[in-house]
Amino acid sequence: MNMKVRYAGIELAHPIIAASAGTTMDAPEAVKCEDAGFSAVVLKSVQEEVIMRYNPFPRFKVLRSGIPGYESCTFYSYEQAYYGGIEEYAETVRKSKERTSIPIIASINCIQPETWAKYAVACEQAGADAVEIVPSCPSGLLVRDPSNDGHAIAVQALKDCKAAVKIPVIPKMSGQVANVLHTATCLDQAGADGLTMLNRATGIEIDIDAMRPILHGGVAGHGGSWALNAVLRWIIVTAPKVRATISATGGVMTGEDVIKCLLAGAQTTQIAAVVYLKGYKYVQTMLEQIRRYMERHELENLADIIGVAGKNFLSMEQYDRVTRYVSECDPEKCTGCRKCENVCIYDAISLKSGKCEIDPQKCDGCGLCPSVCRVGAIQIHPKEA
Ligand SMILES: Cc1cc2nc3c(=O)[nH]c(=O)nc-3n(C[C@H](O)[C@H](O)[C@H](O)COP(=O)(O)O)c2cc1C
Ligand code: SF4
Ligand code: SF4
């Protein structure tokens, strides 16, 4: 079974990379990532602006939200950049290279336009295998300058770095630009070796009793498994249009999520939140889930699935708007919990003798009730003509 992939010209043993975060702060963390089984490490980003190197405390919170019975979780954080300047960072790159044998990707985030190339050169000289440039960082220029949508900074920073270094340069993109596909294709044309899609979004959580934003009182990064769908959506349309290889980041929490990213067209994935919440070694659980998928599909080479879902991606004009569906309930399985009855806005469901009954005349075939039934009592199928 072969899980090898190529990303930004670098061969990796498998597609799970440790994303830039506190979990990749310095050489000891890079060693932890290699020991746990990651295929590469993106080191914590170094920030040009000194204040961004100091964390406020506390800075993490797991938010549980949603409608009762449909809860979701958000990993909310305001963690600042690498603790030092570019000289210390170069030392971190050097030590990480010395102490590990997996690829080490540096990560830089600058304020002044002329600094990007200098930082990239310092990382290259320190031995980094590639450099990720992070104009998408929500704490950086995007918030300070409301006239800036991140697009122009990303393209210029990439051009400057490409002119200055020989190692692969990988922009880490924001999902908070006007059109992700437009920015991705511009970055590709400007020479991006890889595209990391998409950095966490910036948000706010409010304490309704204190009447203020929680924790440090300002904006924070937020993510969760719910973030994955937007990542897949942009990758599936971007992958066929760019030469650069893609690393998916945002909401990847399981081996199955990695598979989805590859099917959409990414070569690799980068994970952070799940490493905080489940530990470094959780990467082994994810790899085992990928192995089981490969067995189930009799896949010899994982790379063979890259982009396959993209080929099955339909445009709006191609959707089947003709075939009608109807739901049916198996009374043997039904426990009479009424969840389905509550969600049917077409009044097609009623409970008879404690069991769900669906009126095929009223059923619109919308598909909601089978997805809320926890015991699998409802099946939906095409209506017979
Ligand atoms: C606590 C925390 C700190 C992060 N710090 C950085 C950073 O310094 N540079 C960066 O490019 N991304 C940073 N990220 C973003 C991650 O690298 C990753 O792309 C993002 O969290 C989406 O992946 P996830 O859903 O697996 O967390 C950070 C994420 C978290 C959760
Ligand atoms: S949700 Fe499922 S178990 Fe509950 S009443 Fe409907 S069919 Fe029965
Ligand atoms: S499929 Fe939709 S319309 Fe039909 S019974 Fe279920 S919820 Fe109602």
Structure in words:
- The protein has 385 residues and is α/β, with parallel strands linked by helices.
- The chain folds into two domains: 5-311, Aldolase class I (TIM Barrel), CATH 3.20.20.70; 320-382, Alpha-Beta Plaits (2-Layer Sandwich).
- The chain has 13 helices and 21 strands.
- The strands form six sheets. Strands 3, 4, 5, 8, 9, 10, 11, 16 and 17 form a nine-stranded parallel sheet that branches. The protein has a four-stranded antiparallel sheet with strand order 6-7-15-12, with no helix packed on it.
- β19 and β20 (355-358) form a beta hairpin.
- The longest helix is centred in the last third of the chain and has 15 residues, at 282-296.
- It is globular and about 75 Å long.
- The relative contact order is 0.12.
- The mean pLDDT is 95.
- The protein binds flavin mononucleotide (FMN) and iron/sulfur cluster (2 copies).
- One iron/sulfur cluster binds next to α13.
- Residues 329, 334-340, 356, 373, 375, 377-378 line the site of one iron/sulfur cluster.
